[in-house]
Amino acid sequence: MSKFTDYKFQPFLRDAIGKLGFESPTPIQKEIIPLMLKGSSAIGQAHTGTGKTHSFLIPIVQRVNSTNEDVQAVVVAPTRELATQLYDELAKLIEGTEIRTTLLIGGTDKERSAVRLKSNPHIVVGTPGRIQYMVENNALSVHTATMLIIDEADLAFDMGFIEDIDKFATKMPTSLEMYVFSATIPENLKPFLNKYMESPAHIIIGKRKSFTENMHYSLVPVRGMDREKKLLEVLEGITPYLAIIFTNTRKNTDRLANFLAESGIKVGKIHGDLSPRERTRMMKRIRDLEFQFIVATDLAARGIDIPGVSHVINYELPDELEFFIHRVGRTARAGLKGSAITLYDPSEEEKIQRIEALGIPFVHEEVKKGEWVEVKERHARKTRVKKFDDADRKAVAFVRKPKKVKPGYKKKMAQQIESIKKQERRKFRKK
């Protein structure tokens, strides 16, 4: 199908898709929608920004029977923010219909959620822990649901939520259709998939976009300078639409956000220690563009979709290289340009080299008086030392110990060696 109008969708769904401005399905939508419409389990492997959300929401809505009072589909996301985003997108597709949905996420009142479930929703969207709690306490019946969709499955696995999903999935029909969406399929996730999926279609859409596509990577040396002071210099040299500054720990996020606020910069922050109410309020303020800068842990790199990010700043280098890729992947989306700025200390050279090995083309830069200037390659000193070492070896090779030694011969040899070293170094500098 080359156009959404080519599908035999219900009129209300066709209208909703039109209101969203969708004309042609993306590659993953072309593959997944037909599979879900005919009820074939599938694994959709694609990165953020490929349209995977609507690849499963659209066929779910098409298949739900609003005259049937039972739960028919369960959609699981690993974080509250992702679940809320899915729920909001679903609401746009079912507006004006009799299809009932509910959002079950942590941080909300459990009793109120249970009361809402007195009338069975047709589609449940939520986080693994809260859905499992409702099932375990007989507030939610999932034994009638024929579709289970797991979004960001690799993140759900990393966060330890697969056990919760497994608990309520065992209560679903043996004919359950499972649809799993993930950027990667970790080896340790496969036993779970094999338990519920028999020969699923495995759709892999494209490779991760080129690291150089619309991206600029600045590598800024901290050297002996205070890292916070260096960050302020960097911030003076950019005018972002929205910049995310990444730290490695929640404590560092709080500390850095406080420092920037004290320096007169209005800044938001996101990390796992914020209460549900604080996180909801913060995300609303971010989406309302109250902040130009956000300090965050890696939760924001994968668990939250923040549109309009023009700059990513690695205040600290992550210990796991994959997180570097997730971080910089927050910008340069939808054909827009992006910039990733990384602060580093010479002691972190090994990490930088490992990141470069992934294909990241760093440009060694500094901010001077608010202007970006390219500086000498950080390898220049190493090359220079190596050349000098070559000069030392050459000098030693040229100066031989005399066959007949006389008093003071060692001193004379040392003088000759030093003389040749100086000559070689002069040649190197001229080059």
Q: How many H/I helices?
A: 17
Name the structural class.
alpha/beta
Sheet with most strands: strand arrangement: 10-11-9-12-13-8-14-15
Q: Tell me the distance between the termini.
A: 62 Å
Low-confidence stretches: 381-389
Number of strands: 15
Describe the largest sheet: 8 strands, mixed
Approximately how much beta-strand content do the residues carry? 15-25%
Mind telling me the C-alpha Rg? Answer: 29 Å
Principal-axis shape: elongated
In terms of quaternary structure, what is this?
single chain
How would you state the average pLDDT, rounded?
87
Helix content: 40-55%
Defining traits:
alpha/beta, 7-stranded parallel sheet, 431 residues, elongated, 15 strands, 17 helices, 8-stranded mixed sheet
Task: Give a summary of the structure in a few sentences.
Helices cover 42% and strands 16% of the residues. With 431 residues, the protein is an alpha/beta fold.
What does this structure look like?
There is one protein chain. This protein has 431 residues and is of the alpha/beta class. 42% of the residues lie in helices and 16% in strands. It has helices at residues 11-19, 27-37, 52-63, 80-94, 110-116, 128-136, 153-158, 162-169, 190-196, 227-236, 250-262, 276-287, 299-302, 321-328, 349-356, 380-398, 409-430, and strands at residues 42-45, 73-76, 101-104, 123-126, 147-150, 177-182, 201-204, 215-221, 243-246, 267-270, 293-296, 311-314, 338-344, 363-368, 371-374. The strands form 2 sheets. It has an 8-stranded mixed β-sheet with strand order 10-11-9-12-13-8-14-15, with helices on both faces. β14 (363-368) and β15 (371-374) form a beta hairpin. The chain is elongated, with a radius of gyration of 29 Å.
